[in-house]
Amino acid sequence: MVDRSRRAKGGSVLEELGHHGDAEVAPGLVDLAVNVRRDPMPDWLSGPILASLSGLAAYPDPGPATAAIAARHRRPPEEVLLTAGAAQGFVLLAQALRGARCPVVVHPQFTEPEAALRSAGHDVRRVILTGDFRLGSAPVPDEADLVFIGNPTNPTSVLHPAAEIAALAAAGRVLVVDEAFADSAHRDGLDREPESLAERRDLPGLVVVRSLTKTWGLAGLRVGYLLGPAELIARCRAVQPLWPVSTPALAAAEACASPVAVATEREIAARLADERGYLVRRLRALPGVTVPGEPESAFVLVTMDGADKLRLALREAGFAVRRGDTFPGLGADYVRVAVRDTATTDRFADALGGLLERG
Fold first, then answer.
1. Are residues 27 and 56 in the same domain?
2. Residue 349 has pLDDT above 90, yes or no
3. What is the pTM of this model?
4. Contact by Cβ (8 Å): 2, 128
5. What pLDDT score does 11 carry?
6. Are 30 and 345 in contact (CB under 8 A)?
7. What's the CA gap between 329 and 214, in Å, rounded?
8. Do the strands 7-8 and 11-12 form a parallel or antiparallel pair, or are they unpaired?
9. Same domain, 35 and 47
10. Residues 6+ apart with CB under 8 A from 300
11. How many domains does the chain have?
């Protein structure tokens, strides 16, 4: 399904796209709306961040962090651009690629890519995936010369096969893959991120967007990066503000590219897979609750009749979940739930079950 609509029910498109999970959170609520891990920061990460504070009189130097990230993803440094969060990466791409004739965003997905495109004046075309939200349920138009897709996809938690994403690359097209949650995915027996394209340098026009926000709890520090062909990275750098990434954020980026960080990510992803499986089983045991497909990230999409009203009732019960109706392709019967520890899942599932019983 292709949708060219510019307005959403109840407000402008940009108002709809600008809603994020943090808006659901309030003091006293259990936060299941924001997909940021909240565990204590390891010493190998907090130490460099704290040490960097002594150097704040100097302008930030992205060189060491850029080199570390390039080494992690087996790329030359000119194919890496540090950004003030992944969200800035979308803005830079939208600005640098203003000449795109047919920009396409594959939905449902994170709303900032489309918001950035629209703010830069692009006439955005939406491709809406349906059913289990897998590629193939709606084709990407051949004429699309700029395509944005998430993998794993927020909010559906779908992890598309790398081969299917790679098949979207084509000469004359820029393919932007949002891998903000790539380090949350896990497959038994695999010691690397499944289905990631971060190391692929052979695909024409491929740009991978990465974030350090989610796994390492760095939302307030604002640090992410782009990976792509040197020419495209240079075009994005040309529209980036001077010194966009702070010295503490650069220290974090360098630490998070280290071998110990990569190994720890895999351990965290394995634990997350167990906790996600438990959440899915608890939710699917509730009457009238559907979890589409097989979630593979740090959150689970849920659909049920009256989810919009249940979301408000859950707030009264002490839980914040992310509304689904501001994601293009979803509606009021969807909510997104972050994966937490099993004890929190039990409390949440019990509360939701009680609300469903009461009708």
1. no
2. yes
3. 0.93
4. yes
5. 56
6. no
7. 24
8. antiparallel
9. no
10. 157, 276, 279, 280, 283, 291, 336, 337, 339
11. 2
